[in-house]
Amino acid sequence: MIQRISILIPTYTIFLLKEVIGFRTEAHSLPIEAFWFCIDTFRLPIEAFRFRIELFCLFIKTFRLENLKFGFANLNRSIRNPTFGFMNLNGTITNLNGTFRDLNKLKPIEPDIRVCSLKYVQ
Fold first, then answer.
1. Does the predicted TM-score (pTM) go above 0.90?
2. Which of helix, strand or coil describes residue 52?
3. C-alpha span between 38 and 5 (Å, rounded)
4. Is 75 helix (H, G, I), strand (E, B) or coil?
């Protein structure tokens, strides 16, 4: 069964997944646009799922970087390895271990965040 969830990314907040996928991280509020999805519906064991995340109409014009890429391109592998992160963010890769680098250098210009679609397949 395929279930599609539409998520609106919140503004000026970064939500890190805490107990959802087992990362020992905390939620941070930074004066920039949100990079992360707060997904509260994933209370099930993540090992039982294989993810295929599709980013539909996700256009962020807020930053001075026009080609901001997310590290969610291919999640058809195990999600146990938290090595995926946000790519091409001021030339750095920010992993999901609670450390964010160079995010404070990004300043919002005009928020333009649209709905992205997340689809997971059991």
1. no
2. strand
3. 12
4. coil
